[in-house]
Amino acid sequence: MSEANIPRYNFNNRSTKLGLEIIPLQRILEHSQKNNHKAHRLNFYQILVFTKGRGAHEVDFEEIAYSENTVIPIAMGQVQRFSANEQTEGFAVVFTPDFIIKGGADYQYLYDYTIFTHSLKPISNFANKEVYALLDEMIAEQSKDLQFDTAEYQRNLLKNFLIQIERNKRERVDIICNDSFAIYIKFKKIVEEKVSYKLRVSDICDELKVTPKQLNAAIKLYVSTNTKQFIEDRLVLEIKRLLGYTALSIKEIAYKIGFEDPTNFTKYFKSRVNMLPSEYQKTTLKQ
User: In degrees rounded to 5, what are phi and psi of residue 65?
Assistant: First the structure.
């Protein structure tokens, strides 16, 4: 089946060949403007740090307000869309999973931390003097010629940068870090990787080796919904992404998302969004 996906941007650091780069926001906005500010996915992680200006950044159909010192993390695979704003200044810290993950313990930065968990509000964070100090050091190191073990040095700077942003978020969000939180993080990872109409709570419970009751209790500690609804909300979001940001036909989307009958797909979507897929596609498709 041919597939017209949401445009995907691959990581390409031509200057150092490392899997980390700090890019001025103005450069990104200029590139976005040339492409009519089209929505796109990134095949890497991105943290936007706004140093000047006010506006809103679109991530998965949600407008996230920003102003000076706002930090917006964007996970690999999420759909984002920039908007024109000549007053906006700042930086994008972009990196690949392979750059930061060099051992089993390194997975925590992407999966155990809450930075990229947008279901835990607030989505945006703030940059304090510690964040800016680390950002400045990363920029300075990037501007130098490649020196001895620069990759490891920059990797440690990035880790400390993520730690500081996580600290700032935890000061604003009441996060209970226990076995339930570990279950929630693993559950969310499974849903992200296997989002489909065919994904069932029982399948996830088998993988996590917990009962449905235990899983539901863990999820409710961190989001205001139950397990089944969480999966359904994520599925509807994926359908919206495909309808709004691709040229796939409704029939192709139905099969891609796990439906065997496009008619059932249409009924499913309308019952949850109160709009036919074709109607939604016409009103939200980004040109």
Answer: -70, 145
Across the beta sheet with 62-66, the strand order is 8-9, 40-42, 79-81, 55-59, 62-66
Question: 94 — phi, psi (to 5°)?
Answer: -115, 140
Rg (CA), the chain: 20
Q: Helices 179-194 and 201-208: crossing angle, nearest 10°?
A: 130
Q: Report pLDDT for 3.
A: 38
Taking residues 174-194, report their average pLDDT: 83
Residue 6 clears pLDDT 90, i.e. is over it: no
Q: Report, as an integer, the average pLDDT of 88-110.
A: 90
Q: Is the separation of the CB atoms in 210 and 232 below 8 Å?
A: no
Specify whether the CB–CB gap between 84 and 33 falls below 8 A: yes
**Tokens, residue 39:** 């929505």
Distance, CA of 31 to CA of 57 (rounded, Å): 15
Classified as helix, coil or strand, 62 is strand
Note the pLDDT of residue 2.
32
